[in-house]
Amino acid sequence: MFCRRFERQVHVTRHARERMLERNISEAQLVELLETGDTRFKDDTRLWIAKAFPKRTDNLVCAAVVLEDLLVVKTVMHHFDWEAMP
């Protein structure tokens, strides 16, 4: 998959795929999250991307990603809260 927003190919780690399956987050939702979610950078390469999906009742869905040669999705969370961020 390719992310136009970050102009990079996307690599979803095994861990992130397992969390997506556990949390019923589809690949289509992940694509929408990456392309249109709100971002907060931890530093120059690490960030969180979060988005509320109207049909989900588990608050924000969030991906922890790293901008390298690829956009690496390290994990995917639900029940996410920006206020709980460090």
Automatic annotation (TrEMBL):
Pfam families for the chain: DUF4258
Domain of life: Bacteria
Protein name (Swiss-Prot/TrEMBL): DUF4258 domain-containing protein
Source organism of the structure: Vreelandella aquamarina
